[in-house]
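hey m, so remember when u said the tokens were messed up on ur end? i reran from scratch. heres the input so u can diff it against urs
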Amino acid sequence: MSDQITILYGSETGNAEEYARYLHYRLRRMNLKPTLSQLDEYPLKQLITNTTHLIVICSTTGQGELPRNSKKFMKFILKKKLPYDLFQHLRLTTLGLGDSSYTKFNYAIRKIHARLVQLGCQELSPRCEADEMSAEGTDGYYQEWENQLIEALQKDFPKATGINEDLLLMPQYKVSTKAQSLEQDFAQLKVSPDLQAGTVVSNDRITTPDHFQDVRDFRIKSTDLDYLPGDTVSLYPANMDEDVEALLQSQPTWLKIADKPLTISSPPKIEGGFIPNLTLRKLIKYHLDIISIPRRSFFSLLWHFVDPSTEDGQREQEKLQEFSNFEDPELLYDYANRPRRSILETVVEFENNLTIPVNYVLDLFPLIKPRMFSIASKPSSTELELVVAIVEYKTIIRRIRRGLCTRWIKSLKPGDLVRFSIQKSSFNYRNENSAPPIIMVAPGTGVAPMKSLIGQVLSEQTNQELYLFFGCRFKDKDHLIDTFWPESYPNLHIFNCFSRDKDSKYKYVQDALFDQYKLMGDLILNENAKIFVCGSSGKMPREVKLTFAEIVKKYSNISDEEAQRYIISLEDNGRYKEDAW
């Protein structure tokens, strides 16, 4: 067996992937040859036949859940028939990314690490559980973990010598416009079998024109749709044509070849697959995320493409190089994160001395990832509905920022084509032999999956009791549910909370919940009610959970600790579900 280092990552928002990409680059500069892959995409046989050192980086999402791109891997290693010494040849280290304000802090990496050790893995360097809530942030944890890892690898690979930092590494994915072997290369660019095509039916604003937030009721028509309440849709967005043109204009050598057939040798795996008849312009438009904030791994490669022959060029190269290391993390934060500067703006800013070779575009630019939205319509085989908040805001430098996906959605008109896929959830709203009451807490666009669930239950014409606690700012501006249920239903009970209306009975969903503590306590403790909490992550989910604990405490006259344990038991039993983003 040849010595092989494998880096696997599970990432929902891109943070774990970024650390994995950065580590991969660092190890390549040590003259090692690591393999980088999503957990679910890596051929598991390779762990047995072609891996000696395994590095896993994984975030935790929701209530201790694994990212979507790591669940197949976890399902495989949990198989009971696997021998206990399956991975005895592997040396293992893991890095978890989490938030200590959540009960199941870094639960995903703990589960993965524990199971791999059960299957025989030996320690390479200590496991690290990074906490984004800590003073040093995840970067501080990563640095310490990386230092320990590299020290261990240097012992195992004493002949690994570092490569001069001025030397540019060869690209991993060779991109060219040469026409030869075009057929063969395109055979590799297969579209995912899960991908579906649809047509925009409507794209209507459902908040008033004078409200700061543009929220859309977005409907897509397709065929053979199969979904249930709680399922999600992944949309595959595209960059705006003007942004694509701006990037091409910043790199004059690209303009000449922008519309010629493009070939990619050993293309990276991408969710949804590459679009057919690929050109450089199409690659940028549909697959390269040029609107996201540039990260450290981006700058690690970018500075190599600056011409330092002039004083300005040398200064710019040094500046970009500083962004690529951890010596002063504030430099990168102040340049990129604080003003929410985009990759496109960065390239344009340095365009006078920056020449990016086309064959490095897939190494340099991150790929566009599909954006997930909860389905708002009741199950249908021909149509689905989403409730989408358009992301648009001003930064500290007074520039308007727009989210890639929602900006794209805002531009879509009836008849436009969209690519999407549907993901199933464990959103079980009834028991095998009963239909318990459902308590739903859903501020803002968190109401989308609740609308789907309510629509389904009402269409079944059962007596299942539904309690919706909806929150927004103003009754007359962003009361999204105002038109959802034009008629009243005896089993649908709605509690509205308007945080900016002076005469509103309730300001926040927590206020309404606690005011109804007797009803809620009875439903939870005596009627076996299920609880669903959906909406923005941050304070809301935590405060709602604390409110439910207070309700249980007051209703049952028990201690804080007993009430909190009871809520945890509801989570463990699937009666308390949280979906925050």
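this time it looks ok to me. The longest strand covers residues 196-205. if urs says something different then somethings off w ur setup not the seq
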